[in-house]
């Protein structure tokens, strides 16, 4: 019998265009809480999906209790006693707690195939009590708080005799007190012999619970340490410390006059008290963890969603923007995070995508001048260096980086002063990344004011003149290019009390 | 980095030109006419063909804006009720002594208003789909028509009003000329203007269209308002041809119209299809009905044939002409 309940060796998984995991290893002992840490995009999610049978690895070996095993489907994982609990609970809100716990493995009488409701309710009650909860199993799932829903999810894991439990950022949506409850339950599970993989961005969680910590970075395994054997600073370096090469172009020129000023912007439940200003020719980095409210702030400025507090000034005048077309008419453009769903008409050619925002200037009295249109599309597509044969190539046939260039080209057709870029290099390979960086700094040099939302630390530091960090809907730091460090950003982005 | 040059022109290929659903429709159209001629010696008679054309063209006016609605990815099932309401209002006003010219104008205004209300509701209440909103207004508009006329017929219009439905300009039916005029307008609107381009964009990707600064709500309201206006135009021609009106006039037109649009190769998931396809489908179904009627094929049989054609239209998406199809890069 092996010392490890779960061991992975040399796991590699590639998706079209991206290597999500590269020769990753991991070892989990019985009765251990093992923290797994890393930046967004480090490969944690893919790794979890491999353990839970959602993805099959391209290479590598997986051992359960020392035996080589293949987990081919989520059902397999369930049978082998592996369960995952996510930050956003995936439940059926209109069904009862009992139904959620027993979904897919209901207790059914042998002969009549009747559902044994009483047995199930009783069993649900017992499981919940074991976890120290007095929830009525007949309550509808949707009526519960996130913390309570997580407890139900854990009860569900227990009802399936899970021996390996993965918790994916379970505390991200919880208050301090609820987190404390969750810690206790997690410890209880450990004492009963379960092995737990705990993923979190909060150092607090790690120090409070875990005995071991493993760090992934850039789809690779970096190392495993005892929680008390590694200094906090070293851990941060392990998580973010990649070499910043010449990826980022040098920029000259001083920022000009103020273009955009946001004062005390707030939207109940999403963000509050957001204030910043943006100058001509400046790149303002807006960073923080996924879910910190960055996109929501940008979409409020662009008029996709509304805000209920605060004021926005453009070139010194207050503006009230309710629709994206108003934003674009006043000179604010937005490059959305999801370019396939929000940026492109995929079954159209490159050319028509580029001119979609420019139809008014390409027409007289509503009639499209197709000659003029083709010329503009061609010149812009060449300017941003889209790799394609002709402007009639379908947008869907392009790689991620080239699709992004098309969306940028579309922005360039409008008369803009401010450009908001939401994760401009997400899912783009390194070559296209550097092209996009060059484009961004050229735009700044031309006098655009640029807000760049990004989760990628090196990109934020390499490109920005100033950096604003958000956490849980609030600005937690405003840093200058001269003094900004990854550590400073991480401290502001994560819960910081326990770091010092 | 090397400077890239992109082609600004697309190479023309006869193969992809002919591999379009519209040619399929032309083929079926010819086939229908050949079979009809073969089946009945009375089919290829100028006068009766002309009369047949006049009877099926009234609902064709609604087909034109319905193409826009379905390209948007929406649907409007209230159009037949709008026909009824605007027709009934016109007849009622006329019987109460309002001059016919004014009654016609009000008929058009009522249709336009009904369409505008549809568009307003659909854009204001985004959680409601167009099918739900127009299901509700379908019942409401028809209900108002019943309140106004109480299941009576109204008519006795002035002599000249029958010209709309029965008149000729030389040898050509007046209704045919008006339809051709509207058809050309709608073809230009959809394929040559910024408006039409934006309609296609919204049908293909509504979110990206909104993010690109398109006034999506305004365009949707205009499209539904156009449907209301064209339903009122149908009401004029239909009422003229019938000589009187009843609240149950044009019952079932919405499904006929939608069937013609779908047969015309316009995808119900939005963003694809061309105006000319739906226009071809109007004539295809019209002559099919007329020809099979001549040889006494039961009406139910006809429905089955149209149903089969519809399934074929949906099943051969690879043959369908894609408006902005480009060459795939390797």
Observed structural traits:
heterodimer; A: 500 residues; alpha/beta; Rossmann fold; 6-stranded mixed beta sheet; 22 strands; 33% helix; 26% strand; disordered C terminus; B: 330 residues; mainly alpha; ABC transporter involved in vitamin B12 uptake, BtuC; two-stranded antiparallel sheet; 15 helices; 2% strand; globular; translocase (chain A); transport (chain A); cell membrane (chain A); ABC_carbohydrate_import_ATPase (chain A)
Q: Based on the structure, what is the oligomeric state of the protein chains?
A: heterodimer
Strand order of the largest sheet of chain A: 6-7-8-3-9-10
- Residue stretches of chain A low in confidence (pLDDT < 50, at least 5 long) are 496-500
Structural class label of chain B: mainly alpha
Strand portion of chain B:
under 5%
- N-to-C terminal Cα separation of chain B, in Å? 21 Å
Over all CA atoms, what is the radius of gyration of chain B?
Answer: 21 Å
Structure, briefly:
The complex is a heterodimer of chains A (500) and B (330). With 500 residues, chain A is α/β, with parallel strands linked by helices. In chain A, 33% of the residues lie in helices and 26% in strands.
């Amino acid at each position: 019998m092996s010392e490890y309940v779960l061991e992975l060796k040399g796991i590699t998984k590639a998706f079209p265009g991206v290597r999500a995991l590269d020769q990753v290893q991991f070892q989990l002992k019985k009765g251990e809480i093992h923290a797994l840490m890393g930046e967004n995009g480090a490969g944690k999610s893919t790794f979890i999906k491999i353990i839970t049978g959602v993805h099959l690895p391209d290479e590598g070996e997986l051992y359960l209790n020392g035996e080589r095993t293949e987990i081919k489907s989520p059902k397999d994982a369930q049978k082998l006693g592996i369960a995952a609990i996510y930050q956003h609970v995936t439940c059926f809100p209109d069904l009862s707690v009992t139904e959620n716990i027993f979904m897919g493995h209901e207790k059914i009488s042998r002969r009549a195939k009747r559902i044994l409701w009483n047995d199930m309710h009783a069993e649900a009650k017992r499981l919940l009590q074991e976890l120290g909860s007095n929830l009525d199993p007949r309550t509808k799932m949707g009526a519960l708080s996130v913390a309570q829903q997580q407890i139900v999810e854990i009860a569900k894991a227990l009802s399936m005799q899970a021996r390996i439990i993965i918790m994916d950022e379970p505390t991200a949506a919880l208050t301090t007190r609820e987190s404390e409850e969750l810690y206790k339950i997690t410890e209880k599970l450990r004492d009963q012999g379960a092995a737990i993989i705990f993923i979190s961005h909060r150092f607090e969680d790690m120090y409070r619970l875990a005995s071991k910590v493993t760090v992934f970075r850039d789809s690779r395994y970096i190392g495993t340490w005892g929680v008390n054997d590694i200094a906090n600073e070293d851990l941060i370096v392990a998580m973010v410390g990649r070499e910043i090469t010449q990826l980022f172009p040098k920029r000259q020129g001083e920022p000009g006059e103020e273009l955009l000023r946001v004062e005390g912007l707030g939207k109940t439940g999403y963000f509050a008290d957001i204030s910043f200003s943006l100058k001509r020719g400046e790149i303002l980095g807006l960073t923080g963890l996924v879910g910190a409210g960055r996109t929501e702030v940008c979409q409020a400025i662009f008029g996709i969603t509304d805000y209920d507090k605060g004021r926005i000034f453009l070139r010194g005048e207050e503006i009230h923007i309710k629709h994206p077309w108003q934003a674009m008419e006043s000179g604010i453009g937005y490059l959305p995070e999801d370019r396939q769903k929000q940026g492109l008409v995929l079954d159209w050619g490159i050319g028509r995508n580029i001119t979609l925002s420019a139809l008014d200037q390409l027409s007289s009295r509503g009639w499209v001048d197709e000659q003029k249109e083709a010329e503009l599309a061609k010149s812009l597509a060449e300017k941003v260096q889209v790799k394609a044969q002709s402007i009639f190539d379908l947008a869907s046939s392009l790689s991620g980086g080239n699709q992004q260039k098309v969306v940028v080209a579309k922005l360039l057709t409008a008369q803009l002063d401010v450009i908001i870029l939401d994760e401009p290099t997400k899912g783009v390979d390194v070559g296209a990344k550097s092209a996009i960086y060059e484009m961004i700094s050229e735009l700044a040099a031309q006098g655009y004011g640029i807000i760049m939302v990004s989760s990628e630390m090196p990109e934020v530091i390499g490109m920005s003149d100033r950096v604003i960090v958000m956490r849980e809907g609030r600005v937690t730091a405003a840093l200058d290019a001269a003094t900004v460090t990854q550590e400073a950003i991480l401290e502001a982005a994560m819960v910081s009390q326990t770091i010092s | 980095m090397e400077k890239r040059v992109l082609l600004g022109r697309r190479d023309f290929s006869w193969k992809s030109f002919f591999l379009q659903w519209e040619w399929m429709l032309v083929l079926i159209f010819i086939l229908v006419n050949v079979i009809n001629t073969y089946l009945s010696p009375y089919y290829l008679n100028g006068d009766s063909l002309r009369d047949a054309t006049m009877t099926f063209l009234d609902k064709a006016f609604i087909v034109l804006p319905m193409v826009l609605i379905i390209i948007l990815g929406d649907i409007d099932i209230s159009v037949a009720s709008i026909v009824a309401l605007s027709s009934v209002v016109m007849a009622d006003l006329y019987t109460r002594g309002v001059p016919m010219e004014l009654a016609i104008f009000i008929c058009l205004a009522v249709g336009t208003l009904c369409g505008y209300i549809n568009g307003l509701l659909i854009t204001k209440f985004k959680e409601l789909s167009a099918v739900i909103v127009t299901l509700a207004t379908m019942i409401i508009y028809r209900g108002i028509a019943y309140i106004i006329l109480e299941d009576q017929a109204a008519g006795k219009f002035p002599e000249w009003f029958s010209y709309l439905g029965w008149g000729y300009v030389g040898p050509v039916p007046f209704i045919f000329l008006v339809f051709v005029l509207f058809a050309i307008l709608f073809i230009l609107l959809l394929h040559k203007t910024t408006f039409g381009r934006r309609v296609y964009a919204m049908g293909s990707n509504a979110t990206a269209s909104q993010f690109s600064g398109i006034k999506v709500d305004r365009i949707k309201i205009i499209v539904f308002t156009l449907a209301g206006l064209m339903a009122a135009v149908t009401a004029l021609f239909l009422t003229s041809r019938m000589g009187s009106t009843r609240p149950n006039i044009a019952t079932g037109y919405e499904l006929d119209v939608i069937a013609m649009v779908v047969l015309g190769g316009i995808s119900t998931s939005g963003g694809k299809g061309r105006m000319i396809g739906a226009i071809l489908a109007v004539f295809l179904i019209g002559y099919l009905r007329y020809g099979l009627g001549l040889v006494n094929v039961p009406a139910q049989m006809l429905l089955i044939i149209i149903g089969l054609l519809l399934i074929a239209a949906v099943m051969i998406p690879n043959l369908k002409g894609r408006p902005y199809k480009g060459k795939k890069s390797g």
